[in-house]
Amino acid sequence: FFFEKGAKATLLPKGAPEAVSIEITECEPNCCFSDEGQTPLGLIKLLHTLDVVDDGIKITHTLQMFPHNEQTQAIFEQHLYPKLQKELPESVKNLARLAERESAGV
Fold first, then answer.
1. Which of 5, 37, 59, 97 could pair with 22 in a Cys bridge, judged by C-beta atoms 3.0 to 4.6 Å apart?
2. Which helix (H) or strand (E) holds 102?
3. Residue ranges of the alpha helices (H) in the chain?
4. What is the rounded average pLDDT of the residues 11-37?
5. How far is residue 80's CA from residue 65's CA, in Å, rounded to a whole number?
6. What is the H or E stretch that residue 30 is in?
7. Between residues 2 and 82, which one has the greater pLDDT?
8. Spatial CA neighbour of 76 closest among 95, 63, 90
9. Contact 20, 35 (CB under 8 A)
């Protein structure tokens, strides 16, 4: 998996009934990248930004959800969003490891 515009991957979130295909839609090395994926609930877009701070790098995520309808919006708000918040720290660590490997040429 390479962090470049157009790169694609398949994710199987814990407890999800099916895998989600994602695509990197923008990528600025050492700055930010965005990705999006179509889920059964609707389109999810994520923006990940990297900022150098005194003690390392600060990673910020912005999530946008475009639900198919009001019912999928309610499911997202009540079930998926709390789960994403809970699992985000581990996801960030995994993304950071992948980015470090890629920048090191591994």
1. 37
2. helix 81-104
3. 70-75, 81-104
4. 86
5. 11
6. none
7. 82
8. 63
9. no
CA 37, 64, 15: angle at the middle one, nearest 5? 55
- Distance, CA of 20 to CA of 14 (rounded, Å): 11
Q: Which residue type is seen at 60?
A: T
Listing from the earlier edge strand, what are the strands of the sheet with 8-11?
8-11, 20-28, 32-39, 42-53, 56-67
Q: Are 47 and 62 in contact (CB under 8 A)?
A: yes
Q: Which token pair is 43? A: 């389109």
**The model's pTM:** 0.73
16 DSSP assignment = -
Determine contact, residues 29/19, Cβ cutoff 8 Å. Answer: no
